[in-house]
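Data availability (excerpt). The following record was deposited with the supplementary files.
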Amino acid sequence: MSANKKDNNMAEETPTKPKAPRRTSTRHRPVYIVDGSRTPQLKAKGKPGPFHAANLALSCGQALLARQPFEPSDLDEVIVGCVMPGPDEANIGRVVALRLGCGKKVPAWTVQRNCASGMQALDSAAKDISLGRAELVLAGGVEAMSHAPVLLNDSMVTWLGSWMSAKTLTARIKTLAQLRPSYLKPIIALLRGLTDPVVGLNMGQTAEVLAHRFNISRSEMDAFAVRSHQRLAAAQDNNSLTEIESLYDTRGHFYEHDDGLRRDSSIENLAKLRPVFDKPFGNVTAGNSAQVTDGAAMLILASEKAVEKYHLPVLGKIVDTEWAGLEPEQMGLGPVHASTPLLKRNKLKLEDIDFWEINEAFAAQVLACLKAWQDKDYCKTELGLSDALGELDQSRLNVDGGGVSLGHPVGASGARIVLHLLHVLERNNAKTGIATLCIGGGQGGAMLIERATG
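Predicted structure:
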């Protein structure tokens, strides 16, 4: 065997090590978050909710822009994250911008990165500001999950095509005879959209995968869920969710609070629920999973030039953002894969971050992230670290509840957790926070922010 051939074989047999993050922050100009608002998150209740997606974004956007010292037409662009816009909401970002009175000259666009669409909108706005292509941007996310479409299957669509092309009575009778009951079976877009088409697992099944991998018990999941409800209840009682703008529908009803809160939630009550995604042996239930909800969150991002020009107050600034990919069947670990290089690049440790928001897609998923950071083998083999990253203090994590208690409107959650984290930092006179979430399809996103001080 030649030396070269031997070397090549050895190279093939050597296990591939995870690549160490080599990227550096590409921020050229500071990016400030000036202000933000969100709607209450309304739980889907088996029928379309009172608001379409564009109306949700419009409601919180109107309240937000109404208190600014500039006109909506002064914005350089509008960016909205949304996964399932309605049939009358193509490029919902543009629809919202026009309805907000931004005028025809303000460009607007829509982004889609599954659960992180709202955060992607913020990151896209931040990059444009950082590179000098924009000074003032309205960005955020929205989702009306209760309005997710019900679709016709291909057989029914094909049959309808034949029916429309049948011109004579004979042709129509012949086509009608070809109609089969199976053609009428609908496709539920919400269920199909929450299933990964590559690995064939729905999001709840990926949570079961993580629960098994990290030995997370049903009682641990339920205890986490109860705490989420308790924290949201305390936040509502203490009026801590000041970023919420009330919603008003056309029937004279108003909505002031996230209505998925269960104040009577207990481990005993949750233990009675049956598994949903891995019957009958699983542990992920409706009670320890994020709720299906409708909601929107919008933020104003600005350059230093815009802050000075309009004398804008500043909530904080976006320091850095990271996106990561991993196995789709373990997508819930996305926060670990995105936050770890973010910390490393900024020379920070877990304990250096004052407060965290990890979107609660599932209790099992968040708990798996915490356990992964404490697992030396996982950190070495999957993250390229020399040791376990450490333990995240849960008293600084999701202090006012999360997706399990207040819901997860997929297009909005990434923007909501960034906005709320800024309010948490302000309330606690703290400086640094990370908002992070898992993304269907096997990705993770994380945003490092700092509160304005002085």
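Summary of structural features: The chain has 16 helices and 14 strands.
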